[in-house]
Structure formats: structure tokens, C-alpha cells
Amino acid sequence: MHASVRSGRKWRAELEVDKAVSRLQQQEVVGRVQTGRAGLGWGDPPCLWSRANKERKDLVVSEITRMEQEEYSVKAVAQGRWTTWEGWLGTEQACDLCGAINASLQHTLAGCKAALTQGRFRWRHDQVLRKLAEAVEQRRLEARQESATGNQQRIHFLKKGESADTISRRPAPKLLSPGVEWRMEVDLGRRLHFPREICSTTLRPDIVLWAAEEKSVLLVKLTVPWEEGVEAAHERKRAKYADLVAECREGRWSARLYPVEVGARGFVGGSTTRLLKDLGLRGRAISKATREIAEEVEKASFWLWLRRRDKTWGAGRS
């Protein structure tokens, strides 16, 4: 009877040990094989499972480590397929929309002026914005429900010999705290008009969250650039909306600007994750939101690629 080892839901120690032992036994059956350019049998002879005694623990640990490294390598290759589209999409001889010579993937997904004029990039931007707004709206509704039930403190029970300082508490959300009524406007479907109770401006942030009770306003501006241009896009939007933030503060409003970026090939920038964390999302909620946002921009960009030869835009979009 084997002792039970407590482990996580996705990684079970007993199962991984059994796999490692099976691999070690299989390696012993296969025997020594040639690796690299070295000759057959080169190097120190391996420690065989059947002959090992005290070394079995080290063999199992080394094999499990090797198994984890192989899994990480597979995941890295799979993730890299989206961020290296050129490897299987290639470069066009000329852009069918604007006539640019040697139109690269970057040109097709983020640089074609004709596609920008036709609204193709705006369509992808709105697809991503819709997913981001869904995550923000869900958090806003959760904050409202928390305020209705009251801000209840969780009771932490201490074990013997444990002090209160050793208990890890979940950090309180920086924004959208319970007890505050936040309103939200998104620049989707109809033209967003900035709340006049804050200030008058012609600028259009993608998402505006404001609480009249606390005189607080959050401005979110989304950009879907080429991955290498994420930092430049962030600084450009921050500079563009700096005057609006200053004007809000002059009216005695506490204003915060969040320029967020999602790469055209599916890279979710750290600014997007930071926004979600500041709003109060944690753990699985952040993972779910970022995954859905990444999938949405990947699908939209792939649709733009499929329609790259179609000079008309509007029919057949979803």
C-alpha cells in the first residue's frame, strides 16, 4: 500500500512518479542510443533502473524534471505559432488594397492605409474592445452586488503557533470598491459622448467609468498595434489624453488614464492585465479575460488576412 501524497488538481505526484518510472524502465529496454554527433556508446554509462538502489529517488526526480521541460517546450512552440505568422503566411508580392510592394504580414495587419481608411482595423479594434468591455462590466456588476450585501470581513482562523501576520490576505481592489455606484460608457455601436458633468471634450476614450459620489473617473483607451509597436502606442495615447486628464482634475475629479494594448497577433500587453487587476479581477478571472481577448484579436486578424485580396469591405463580416 502506497502512501498518499497531497498535490494539486492539475499535477498529481503519484501519477507523475508512475510515468517517470515507466519511462526509466522503457529507457533500460531501449538501451544506449547515439545522441548528437558523438559515436554510439560515448560518455558515461547511465544508471539503470533495475540496478539502482539508493539512486532511484534521484533518477525519478531527474526524469520528472525532464518531463516538465519537454511539456514547457511543446507549449512554447504552440504559443509561438501565433506570434510568428510569417512562417506560414509569408509575404505578398504586392498589397491588393494599396499597391504596396512586398507587403509583409505587418503591413496587412497593422500598416495598410487603405485598410485603415476602409475601417478594417477599426472593426478589429471594436471586436477586441467588446471583449474587454464585457470583463469590465462584469466586474462593475460584481462590485455593485458587493455593496448591496455590505463589505463583510472574512474570518481567518489561526493554527497553533501561527500569528496573524503570517496569514496572507487577499489584497483589496484598488478601484470599483464596494459601496460606490459606478457608471460606464463604451464607444461601441454609437458615438461616445464624454460625460458633461465631468468636462466638455471632443476626445473619445473607448471606456469611461465614473462615480459622481466620489468624483472619480477612469479613462480606458485601447490600441491594437503590431507587437513591436506596443510601447510606442502606449506613450502616444498617454500623451494624447494627458490634457483631458488634467482638465478633469482641474474640475476636482480624481482621474486615471489607462492606455491598454493588445497586439495584432494575440499578445495581451501588460497594461491590459494591469487594468484588470486594478479593477479587482483576480486569478482565474484575469486568465479567462486575457485568454478571450487574445482569441478574439487572433480571429479578427486572421479574418483580415483572409479578406486581404477583397477590395470591398462590409459584406460577410461577423
Please explain how this structure is put together.
The chain has helices at residues 13-30, 56-83, 86-89, 105-111, 113-118, 120-149, 230-240, 242-250, 270-279, 284-306; strands at residues 92-94, 101-103, 183-186, 207-211, 216-223, 254-261. With 318 residues, the chain is α+β, with helices and mostly antiparallel strands. The chain has a four-stranded mixed β-sheet with strand order 3-4-5-6, sandwiched between helices. The longest helix is centred in the middle third of the chain and has 30 residues, at 120-149.
Protein topology:
Elements: H1 13-30, H2 56-83, H3 86-89, E1 92-94, E2 101-103, H4 105-111, H5 113-118, H6 120-149, E3 183-186, E4 207-211, E5 216-223, H7 230-240, H8 242-250, E6 254-261, H9 270-279, H10 284-306
Parallel strand pairs: 5-6
Antiparallel strand pairs: 1-2, 3-4, 4-5
Helix pairs in contact: 1-2, 6-10
Question: What would the keywords be for this entry?
Answer:
318 residues; Restriction Endonuclease; four-stranded mixed sheet; two-stranded antiparallel ribbon; 10 helices; flat
Low-confidence stretches: 166-173
* Strands ordered across the widest β-sheet: 3-4-5-6
- Overall body shape: flat
- Indicate the proportion of strand residues: 5-15%
Approximate helicity band: 40-55%
CATH topology-level name of the domain at 119-149 and 175-306: Restriction Endonuclease
Q: What average pLDDT do the residues reach?
A: 81
- Helix and strand sequence: HHHEEHHHEEEHHEHH
* Helix/sheet category: alpha+beta
CATH class designation of the domain at 119-149 and 175-306? Alpha Beta
Protein name: Reverse transcriptase
